[in-house]
C-alpha cells in the first residue's frame, strides 16, 4: 500500500524532532547520573540549545499546514489507527506548543538544569534560603508560560495539562477531597510506633543492586534496560529499546531500600518498553500520561511488590542476601514491617496510606505558589504547618521538608498530583486485570510475572499516546477514574495488618 505523501512528510519531520528530543534526554540523564558537577553550566546551555531547535522545528507553520491537509485523510481512518492517532495527537501538541515562544521554552529548560544543581547543593546543606532565588525565578517563568494560555478557569489547569492532558484541577480536588478523610482515618487506625531492629540494620549496597537486577528481570526487563544510581530515582527512555532506570541505596533503612525504588522505576520502564514498535520516532511513542505512568510504577511497587504472595516468593532471596539482619525474622513479621503505616517525613519512603497525604500537601502548596497567594519566603513555614496537620508529625528541618523533592527545581509544577492519581488508577487496573487473570496472585507467589506483564502490555502499554488519558482508562478498565477501589484496597490492607 502506497503511503499518503503528506503523511510520509509529517512522519519524517516528527522523526527528526523525536531524535532531537531524545538527544536532549540523553544529556538530562547524564547530568543526573554521570556528569561531574562542574559540567552543570555548560550542560544547561546544551540542553537549552537542543530544546530550542526541537521546539522551533515543531512549531514551524509548515508542519501546521501539513496537519491541516491531513485532517480529511485522518477522518477516513479508524479513530484508533496509528495514522489517525498520529495526526490527531500531533495537532493537539502543535496547537499547544505554538502558543509558547521558543525563547521562553529554552529559558525554562536552561533554568531547570541550573536550578537542579542549586537544589542538590541546598538540600545537602539544608539551606532553603540558598535555593529560594532559584524557586523565585522558576515561578516567574512559569507565570509567563501560564500567560500563554490565558484566559483559563483555573491557573493550575495550565500546568496540570502538561502532565495529565485534558484533566482539570477541579477533578483532582474532587478525588483528593474523597480520599483525604479516608487516608487520615486509616493513618490513625494503622499507625504503629514500634520499629523493628531489622528495619534499620545494615543492607550492603552491592547486594541490593544484585537483588534489584534480579527483580527487574523477573518483572520483564530485558537487555534494553540499564540500572544506575542517582540522588532522586527516575526512569527515562531514549527509544523503545533503550530504557534507563535509576535507583538509590540506603544501607541502613529498609524502607529506603532500593528494592522498592527499583520496582517503582521498573514499572515506568516496562510501560515505555511495551509501547508498540510501530510508534517509534513519533509523538505517540511514550506513556499516555503521568498518572497512567504512575499507575504502573505503583502497581509493580505496591500492589504486587508489597503483597504477601510476592514476599512468599522473594523473601527467601532477601534472607539469603542479608542473613544477619533477616535470618531470624519470619515472613509475616517482615511483611508487616514493609507495609506498616508510619507518619514519616519523606515522601519517597512513605507507606501507601500516608503517601497520599504527602501529595495533597504539595498540590495545595503548588496551587498557592502559582496563584501568588503564597510567597516563596513562607514556603518552609507553610510546609511544616500543613504537614503536621495532615500527617501528625513536626518537621525538624527543610532537608526533610520542603527541600526533599527535585520537582520544583526542574519546574515540574503540576506533576505531583499525578503520583496520587496513579495510586488510584493502579487499583482500578489491578481489579480489571484480575478478571482476566484470576490466578494472578498464585503466579506472583511462584515468581511468575509473564502473564501479568503481557496483559498490561497488550491492554495499556502498546497504546502509547494514541488515545487521551480519559479514553485510555476507559478502554482499560471500562470507566473513568474512581477512587473507591483504591480506598477499599487500602482499608483491606490496614484491616489485615491490624488483625495480626
Largest beta sheet: strand ordering: 1-3-2
Structural class: mainly alpha
Summed up, the domain count is 2
Average pLDDT for all residues: 96
The CA-CA distance between the termini, in Å, is 64 Å
Question: What integer value in Å does the Rg equal?
Answer: 23 Å
Continuous helix count: 21
Order of helical and strand elements = HHHHHHHHHEEEHHHHHHHHHHHH
What is the helical fraction, as a range of percent?
55-70%
The CATH topology of the largest domain turns out to be: Neurolysin, domain 3
> Could you say what the CATH architecture of the largest domain is?
Orthogonal Bundle
Q: Name the overall outline.
A: globular
- What can be said about the biggest beta sheet? 3 strands, mixed
Contiguous low-pLDDT stretches (5 residues minimum) are none
Keywords:
single chain, 500 residues, mainly alpha, Neurolysin, domain 3, 2 domains, 3-stranded mixed beta sheet, 21 helices, globular
Question: How does this structure look, described?
Answer:
With 500 residues, the chain is mainly α. It has two domains: 5-120, no CATH class; 169-499, Neurolysin, domain 3. The chain has 21 helices and three strands. It has helices spanning 5-33, 40-58, 61-75, 82-97, 102-125, 128-147, 155-161, 169-190, 205-219, 258-274, 290-304, 308-321, 323-326, 331-339, 352-371, 379-391, 416-436, 440-445, 450-459, 469-477, 484-499, and strands at residues 225-229, 235-239, 242-247. The protein has a three-stranded mixed sheet, with helices on both faces. The mean pLDDT is 96.
